[in-house]
Each structure stands twice: as structure tokens, then as C-alpha cells.
Amino acid sequence: MVLLVNTPTENGSAWRDMFLKLEPSLEVRVWPDVGDPADVEVVFAWRHVHGDLARYPSLRAVFSLGAGVDGVLADPAFPRQVPLVRMVDPNLGVLMTEYVLAAVLRHHCELDHYHRLQQAARWEKRVRPFAGDRVVGVMGMGELGARAAGALLGLGFSVRGWSRRIRTLPGLETFAGEAGLTAFLAGTQILVCLLPLTAQTRGILCASTFSRMPRGSCVVNAARGGHVLDADLLAALDSGHLSGATLDVFETEPLPAGHPFWSHPRILVTPHIASVTSLPTAAALVVDNLRQWRAGGALRNVVDPDRGY
Ligand code: NDP
Ligand code: OXD
To answer: Are residues 115 and 194 located together in one domain of the fold?
Structure first.
């Protein structure tokens, strides 16, 4: 089986070496050294050049290096009849949970406020609520959101979740769909976005959403930049309706020089590091999935291209 590693922004040779170590029977090529495109049966993709996936007449599956498949599905040349497998690796959830906890605690403990006071050499104390009196709302209760929500519960926060279909998770108040969104937002003081980017969720962090949250709320976006309407977020922060934001992902990455987020006093920017695919564990999961499939089993973690995740 010929597997093409098509990850122009990543170290394709490192992935090839790991795939070969784990499954020597594979023939692994690294884009752009494709050889005869007709040989390629499986593509392992991340930020591939749009249009490229249409070049492989024998393509039988595409594996995404990341959990989010919006980049693959945004390619108009993506062959939609071919199964698209997303990355589901518990390690992604471990790292994401650390990031979410750090961001939520930063807002809960008002560390940015104290950082501003420090810059003015001011010694002023404020009483903060107990975690149980702080409501954290997690948008997206999938692999990453559910794990982060569980960890927030463990710290004693009052946690609620929002998903497309209603979920029941012990200790959590859950809401679903458009019908549940207003009630979900109305009580949320720290909003964590862990949604996939789809036609339904693009631009969801917008003025209408912010206006339904209590004054002084904070936003953490570790999902995709396309979820945020940048101008709406800036307006909500500048008016004081939102008191802070932690942003890991942006419509254009790297975040362009001069973008107002870089210098905004109430925004913390991180460079898409909330979670990172771990090469050894992720490669092992891909190889295991491929082995079962070659033995006649079904592929795991196939996304629904119409749903977008
Ligand atoms: P999952 O597919 O496991 O979970 C997605 C969740 O979002 C599900 O609960 C789903 O609802 C919900 N959802 C989808 N569409 C809607 C909608 N229209 N309305 C309400 N809820 C919706 O994804 P993961 O948890 O694995 O990953 C989430 C995202 O995190 C990825 O798509 C990626 O964009 C981002 N990510 C960011 C990283 C970073 O470093 N910043 C790293 C890894 C991922 P339901 O349960 O009903 O299906
Ligand atoms: C992912 C990411 O989707 O790293 O896995 O953003």
C-alpha cells in the first residue's frame, strides 16, 4: 500500500520514518515527491495544497494529522466519496485540557487584571468567587470538550456544555442546538469554544452570542479562528461587555503583524499550541487503523463530510 505524507507545514520525513518503523510493509512517500500519482492509495494530510487531492485516481482514504478536518473539507477538490479519517488521540485531549484549565484559571483568578496592576505598581486586592460560583460553558462536547469539561468539574467549577445533540454527562448541565443556545449562554461566565469549524459554527463567537452572556464574561477560543468575528470580539471587549479573551487560533495563521489582537490589553494570544498532535502516538493510531482496514475491518473515526466533522 502506498501512503503519501502530504503535510507541507510539518516534518513529513519524520512522519514517514515513524510510519515505516511501525509498519514496514507500507511504501511511504513524502509530498511533493509523489512518484506516479496513480500508485497513491492513502494520503496523510495537514494543510495540503488545495487541488492536490484530485491528482490520485487510486485514492481510497485520507487521514488527517489533526482532529479538525475543516482544512481538508475546505478544498473544493476533496473527493467526497473517499473516507476522511480525523485524528482521535487521547494525548490531544490531555494537552487541550491543560490549556483550557490554564486559560480558565487565568480568567477566574483575574491574572491579567493583576498583571495590569503590576505594571502600574499598584497593590490592590479583590475578592474572587469560589470556583463553584463561577460558571464555565464549554461549546462542543466531543473528544476534547468533554474531557476539558470533566477536568473543570474536578477543579470545582460549575460546568455546562453545549452540543448539537443533547448529551448527558455526570455533574454537567447540558444544552443542545439553537434551541438551547440562549439558555446556555445566559449563565456562562467563561465561555470555552471547542467546536469543529463547519458551515453551522463559522462566526459563532459574534456580537449576538456575546450579547447573550453576562457582562464581564470571558472567552477562550481553542478551536478555530473562523469561529470568531474579530471585529465583534474587539467591540465587546472595548465596550467592557467582555472582560477578557484567550485566543489560540486565528482566521489567518500566523496572526498577521499589526493585527489588533497582538496588542490588545485584554487578549492573550497563543500560536495554535493549545494541543499538538504527538507524532509517535498518532502515527501508531493511524497504522493500527490502517491494519484493521486492510484486514477487512471498518475504518475508525471517519467524518461525515456533509456534517463537516
Ligand atoms: P469532536 O468531533 O469530537 O466534537 C465536536 C463537538 O462539537 C461535538 O460535541 C458536537 O456535537 C459539537 N458540535 C458540532 N457542531 C455543532 C453545532 N452546529 N452546534 C453545537 N454543537 C456542535 O471534535 P474534537 O473534540 O475532537 O475537536 C474539536 C475541535 O477542536 C476540532 O475540530 C479542532 O477545530 C479543534 N482543535 C484545536 C486544537 C488546537 O491546538 N487549538 C487542537 C485540536 C483540535 P455532537 O456531540 O452533538 O456531535
Ligand atoms: C487539530 C489542531 O485540529 O491541531 O488537531 O488544530
So the answer is: yes
Please indicate, yes or no, whether residues 225 and 287 belong to a single structural domain of this protein: no
Cα distance between residue 104 and residue 96, in whole Å: 12
For this structure, is 272 an active site residue? yes
CB-CB neighbours of 232 under 10 Å: 18
Domain limits for position 245: 90-269
Residues 83 and 95 in one domain: no
Establish whether residue 161 lines the binding site of ligand 2, counting it when its CB lies within 6 angstroms of any ligand atom: no
- Ligand 1: residues whose CB is within 6 Å? 66-68, 92, 96, 140-145, 162-165, 167, 194-198, 200-201, 222-224, 248-249, 272, 274-275, 309
What pairs with residue 173 in β-bridges?
160
Packing angle, helices 12-22 and 279-294, rounded to 10: 50
17: in domain: yes
Point out the catalytic residue in the list 16, 224, 227, 266. Answer: 224
Which grid coordinates belong to 135? Answer: 460558571
pLDDT digits (tens), the chain, 309 positions: 999 999 999 999 999 999 999 999 999 999 999 999 999 999 999 999 999 999 999 999 999 999 999 999 999 999 999 999 999 999 999 999 999 999 999 999 999 999 999 999 999 999 999 999 999 999 999 999 999 999 999 999 999 999 999 999 999 999 999 999 999 999 999 999 999 999 999 999 999 999 999 999 999 999 999 999 999 999 999 999 999 999 999 999 999 999 999 999 999 999 999 999 999 999 999 999 999 999 999 999 999 999 999
Domain identity same for 234 and 257: yes
Query: Measured between alpha carbons, how far is 148 from 307 in angstroms, rounded to an integer?
Result: 23
- Residue of the nearest CA to atom 1 in ligand 2? 66
Q: Are residues 32 and 120 in the same domain?
A: no
- Determine, yes or no, domain membership for 145: yes
Q: Which three cell numbers stand for residue 99?
A: 490549556
Domain count, the chain: 2
92 CA distance to ligand 2 middle (Å)? 8
Please indicate, yes or no, whether residues 117 and 78 belong to a single structural domain of this protein.
no
Helix axes 279-294 and 90-108, enclosed angle (nearest 10): 140
